[in-house]
Amino acid sequence: MSLLTTIGLMSGTSLDGIDAALIRTDGRERVEAGAFLTLPYPDGLRDRLRACLGGRGPLAEIAAVERDLTLAHAEAVRALLAMAGLAPNAVDLIGFHGHTISHAPDQHLTWQIGDGAGLAALTGIAVINDFRSADVAAGGQGAPLVPLYHRALAAGLERPLALLNIGGVSNVTWLGAGAEDVLAFDTGPGNALIDDWVWRHTGLRYDESGTLAAAGRIDETVLAALLAQPYFRQPAPKSLDRDAFDPAPVAGLSVEDGTATLTAFTAAAIAAARPLLPAPPLRWLVTGGGRLNTTLMAMLKARLGVAVEPVDDQGWSGDALEAQAFGYLAVRSLRDLPLSLPSTTGAPHPVRGGRLHRP
Hints:
With 359 residues, the protein is an alpha/beta fold. The protein has helices at 43-52, 59-84, 116-123, 133-137, 147-153, 192-202, 211-215, 220-227, 255-271, 294-304, 321-334, 342-345; strands at residues 4-11, 17-25, 31-40, 93-96, 99-104, 109-113, 127-129, 161-166, 169-175, 182-189, 283-287, 307-310, 355-357.
């Protein structure tokens, strides 16, 4: 199949901004990575997005946030094209994830805001969005959706292999020896609880390099209470909303101890996923913002007992990877290929998805 030039856009649960990545792909095995940028959210839009989480707030305000979010994505596309020296007509397709404000697949609900038709009109490029709803309607979790891209990237690497994405929520893709040996699920919290705690107590957006966590002490009693939540005993595939976990047990701790305990919660939840994997991974490759938290990475190495490496050591971009994935999935959608498998979302069959909007 011929390669298409596509832009993937991702606005993740960490609420840090918009990732935009150029790739060329056939939607199967071939992937060529190109330019990438992150457009941080202005504080006002970030705070308004945060207020919409859970589908809260007046519908008129959610609609206004969706409009401004779409405008910001259009600006990210323009900036990426300028960086790459490309005109809009050099790009075949945009994969537009939008921003998840509510995810409750057990209630057949997933809600990503972002106006696909509006983005196509603003950029002059065809857009595919609405990647998750078909899977949820079919009985799947609608997440994670990156595993098929992980499989394409990891062709030729020694297996069993785990690719771990630590964004607002953490998810793992396990790859076995065969092409169809894929299992994926959300392991538990990622950066979201840590970021929210740090922001609430210090005004900082995140714990840079895990400095606060390194200065604190893990409260093992609080950690045990956090890990007692029933999600960790559920079979895979499974997925989470950003705000699925109640951080109340941490409330009485100091800023440093709370940060250390929540960081340990993320690491312990990932380690608790190991019994759900068909075979122990030989190594874990880590993408997403969590790979930059040296304290978290050290905790993971201690708990997992095998090599834990940032995907950048493999020559991939840990910042760009999830945005690239939605550019890849857009091509799969255009070519009527499945976006998910029963072993990645729990849907009863491979599910196609996405909605095409032409400018």
